[in-house]
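Researcher: Next entry in the queue.
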Amino acid sequence: MESFKPLLAKVATGAGLDRAEARQAFDDLLSGEVTPVQASAFLMALKVRGEAPDEIIGAVEAMRARMVPVRSVPGAIDVVGTGGDHSGSYNVSTLAAIVTAACGVPVAKHGNRAATSRSGAADVLAALGVRIGLAPDELSLCLAEAGLCFMFAQTHHAAMRHVAPVRAELPTRTIFNMLGPLANPAGVGRQLFGVSSPAWAEPLTGVLAELGSDRVWTVHGSDGLDEITVTGPTAVVALEGGRISRFTIDPREVGLPLHGLEALRGGDPAHNAAALSEVLDGARNAYRDIAVLNAGAALVVAEAAGSLAEGVVRAGQALDSGAARATLHRLVRLSNLRSHA
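Model: Structure for this entry, 341 residues:
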């Protein structure tokens, strides 16, 4: 593709792309007309130099232009992580999303199957009975009536199939690992966003602000988790009221104990689904604690709780009352309506 070659030549020298150039380059990549050699050279050149914010923004704009959108509802939030922390932990953001929705905050969750873990959000939700890969109207129904939907990345970003083989063959993460959480098909403006590298926290918060988000907590656990962890402190970069601030969360400050990382270790989708169900049914363990901590944070981001401590209490009540279990039941039922029609 002729439009791609000069952009590849530019990044090969170590130079950066402006926003428009990046959008053109990623539109070319997603068109399927760039050769695998060109695509891999481009992605690795960005990786070695380090992706600049304008390049990430242009890439997200190219993805958004090709994605299948979903009609959202006011105040919807995404609870999502970049993945890639190689922890093999339970599906924390998935359970936190269910609990957040049970507290009355609509969650338009965007995710995929496992990449570096044994069980991605799509894998565990499918094991719980949720039908994956719904059409936009089905997702809007789930969001409106259950307060929760799961948008399967492969359905909404079909053009990503053109770069999937190259990504699979490269022995390292690329810019595409950052892009999925930034290209939510429901266009939510609020995110609890976990990153597996602390170096990404501030740049990606700025990117989300530039792309229109108004409230974001970007989090990275001291143990490497792309979640707010319960093994120690978590660094937060927050976007609130147009300003970016930084602070640290210690679970003990909101009444939660510390746990060892081993207590969060998950397994395959069936194992993780069973563990998630146990928490919905009242189990009190590390998985519950990390879920209520992250759901509590999501409630603060959504302006449904005035403090993290209040959010954690409300999240715990949603589990204890059975509201979280009922939310999952509604999602399972609504997601399967068309398959039973």
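Model: The beta strands are 78-81, 107-111, 148-152, 190-194, 215-221, 234-240, 243-249.
Researcher: Noted, moving on.
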